[in-house]
Amino acid sequence: MLAEIITIGDEILIGQVIDTNSAWMAEQLNLAGIQVHQITSISDNREHILTTLEEASERADIILITGGLGPTKDDVTKQTLCEYFEAELVFSQEAFNTINRIFSSRRFPMTELNRLQAMVPEGCTVLNNYNGTAPGMWFEKNGKIFVSMPGVPFEMKAMVIDQVLPRITGQSGLVILHRTILTDGVGESFLAAKIEPWEDNLPSFIKLAYLPQPGIVRLRLSATGTDRSVLEEAIRKAETELMPLAGEYIWGYDDDTFEEVIGHLLRENKHTLSTAESCTGGLIAHMITGIAGSSDYFKGSVIAYSNEIKESMLGVRHETLLNHGAVSELTVIEMAEGTRIRLGTDYAVSVSGIAGPAGGTPEKPVGTTWIAVASPQGTVAKKFLFGDHRGRNIQRAAISALSMLRKELVSEKG
Amino acid sequence: MLAEIITIGDEILIGQVIDTNSAWMAEQLNLAGIQVHQITSISDNREHILTTLEEASERADIILITGGLGPTKDDVTKQTLCEYFEAELVFSQEAFNTINRIFSSRRFPMTELNRLQAMVPEGCTVLNNYNGTAPGMWFEKNGKIFVSMPGVPFEMKAMVIDQVLPRITGQSGLVILHRTILTDGVGESFLAAKIEPWEDNLPSFIKLAYLPQPGIVRLRLSATGTDRSVLEEAIRKAETELMPLAGEYIWGYDDDTFEEVIGHLLRENKHTLSTAESCTGGLIAHMITGIAGSSDYFKGSVIAYSNEIKESMLGVRHETLLNHGAVSELTVIEMAEGTRIRLGTDYAVSVSGIAGPAGGTPEKPVGTTWIAVASPQGTVAKKFLFGDHRGRNIQRAAISALSMLRKELVSEKG
User: Fold this and answer.
1) C-alpha distances in angstroms, A276 versus A16, A68, A85, A263, A403?
2) In chain B, which residue's Cα lies nearest the Cα of A275?
3) B93–A contact, CB cutoff 8 A
4) Residue of A nearest to B70 (CA)
5) How far apart are CA A24 and CA A154, in angstroms?
């Protein structure tokens, strides 16, 4: 079974709104074993909606449509669906009751415009909207399924989970499984060359995709078939066979983030963390504290942007800064060790670098960054050379610091 | 002139990646006076790419394509473009030089796969990618323009701004000018009511759009015509007439950010800044240090996530935390004043709040946040009640802190 998604709304085509609905629906459909063939975003325009519906129904079996169901004049989806399915608008008592309940619970008066929202094309199945005033509509025509839903994300999501997916599954036997393997410390092409024999050996029903991000390469395996356990076993086998070739680069799976993985490792061993940041300016702490419950293991940071604060708040020695400079191995070691002692944590990460655009020298060009991790086992430091874009240098320094910290946490465990 | 956008990538159709490129390109095209007719997302599949190109070129004059240009086997866009334009792959010395420069600057070895990226369809114009290894490609066929670009957002964005848009707008005589006025401390509907007479009085060739963001409302004026100086004068006049109605809310223009405006104000008066952050976990410092040259006025921060660190590093009194709690007026005042003294800066901002999801109480629900600004004139503090979403609470707390700081910097100046 193939599906297509159509999102309707002028606001998408002028770029005022990012279409997040499509990605969400695509993910839900895929998890249900239904492949999404195309996503199409079009304006609130009758002719365009009609041709897009026609074209989508020639390619796919299921067409999910969102948007254009509001009570105002610029929303034309419902009228156009009447035309497409050659149906009259009729009053739906069921839709009316649901709308009425919404208004009573919010103690808002119901307007004539809202009453009109209970009118639906004759012959469609009403999908109740318990979170808003536009009902969803389920149509079947020539063996194809069309579902029209409101564009408000939480209204649409509840409708998909509670009503649309249960109706659709049962009609398809296909299963698609995905597994994403997260690597770091290796470039995409280097990794590709290294795992080529493994890639060539994958069964034909498993597809591999490379998804690079700054500092990270994600490998996504997608297995398609009818027997879930066969697919699961094949993915497990592929994962196992990848380990000897790329195991050293793998740090997580699927939606894992460094912040989460680090949080788990710290929590598991009841260890605490602090950071001492210069060029990253608080980004590492911000990433770590984005995780709910991080206060259990994260104690705090000193952002030492100036040399005086590196000395006064972190105890970096004046001679170190004088003789080696703020961006040096010795400085980040003293920063990490100073923070670890002063903030009283088991682990401490420090970063000092030249984010740019100014401040570079021939020996230390923009992008030069030192990172250290202090732990009960001692302190390690490493030099990185990033690019010449300030924002990306800061991002890559933070990701690299988290990557180094993770390695230390794991090596201690092992 | 009509445009269409095609984004290519399996990761979009399985919902692993939200297609943010389309909204960004749509906005840029609209600002340049080019209407976007349709956005289509398809998989890395030869046949599907060919039919989608054909269909788009029947409807639109300009087709912007992103994705599928990576060096690995799953990326088929370039091969398919060869087929569509009936061209052979040829070596581009220009593309090779740009790729080579990227690798030299990063001191990475160039692989055979990367060398292949310098091969482009014969007859296309190479668009240099200064931020990555996949060159962009500009094609013209039967009076239609096709532009293929990498899917990595910052690579694509630089290419659109520096190369694609200038080439496109050179072909039309129309001038479109935009001016965005930035306000804060006022809701969208309240502001709209207040400036209604001004809005009604705008000349018909100036369009007004409200663009709300958390804590900020942006007003965008778009003037369309053929005479640049007439448009510039009309926008200047509209801006001047807006001041008596909304001047108190206006804090910047166009791409200004709080971080930049604050940087200018501090630099102008040779003042310095530090932050003391609890729930924002370093985000404020991260935002401030995102500005190049911020080390001139920003000295550092203490991220005091635990109470011990609020005491030991910032000098918050034990009794204050005991009697008032970490999220209280007195705590943020002592945090700001302690930071100001210990880090030796003229200004200091502090934040303490309950970001959630846990930690709320009936008196202090999740979202409760105190912010203080300490300055040579004294210390002010204010309470905010945000929502129940951790990530958004952190964002809104940081924006509100910067907004409060800006007001203090301005009032001192005045």
Assistant:
1) 39, 50, 64, 18, 16
2) B303
3) no
4) A210
5) 11
| Residues from chain A contacting residue B44 (CB–CB below 8 Å) | 209
The structure tokens listed for A367 are: 């992008």
Q: Are residues B241 and B297 in the same domain?
A: no
Q: Which helix (H) or strand (E) holds B214?
A: none
Residues of A with Cβ-Cβ distance to B30 under 8 angstroms: 14-15
Q: What is the dihedral of CA A20, A23, A29, A34, to 10 degrees?
A: 140
Interchain CB distance below 8 Å, B27 and A48? no
The ipTM of this complex is 0.77
> How many A-B residue pairs are in contact by the CB < 8 A criterion?
268
CB contact under 8 A, B286 and A283: yes
Chain A residues with CB-CB distance to B10 below 8 A:
207, 209, 222
Eight-state DSSP code of residue B124: P
What type of residue is A370? W
The total number of residues shown for chain B amounts to: 414
Neighbours of B266 (CB within 10 A): 22
Residue B281, domain extent: 263-413
Query: Do A53 and A102 fall into the same domain?
Result: yes
The model scores a pTM over 0.90: no
Count structural domains, chain A.
3
A166, HSE (Cβ side, Cα atoms, 13 Å): 6
The answer on B308 and B270 residing in a single domain is yes
Q: Convert the pLDDT of each residue in A279-336 to its tens digit.
A: 999 999 999 999 999 999 999 999 999 999 999 999 999 999 999 999 999 999 999 9
Give percent above pLDDT 70 in chain A.
98
Nearest to A282 among B24, B303, B343 (CB): B303
Q: Return the half-sphere exposure (C-beta side, CA atoms, 13 A cut-off) of residue A5.
A: 32
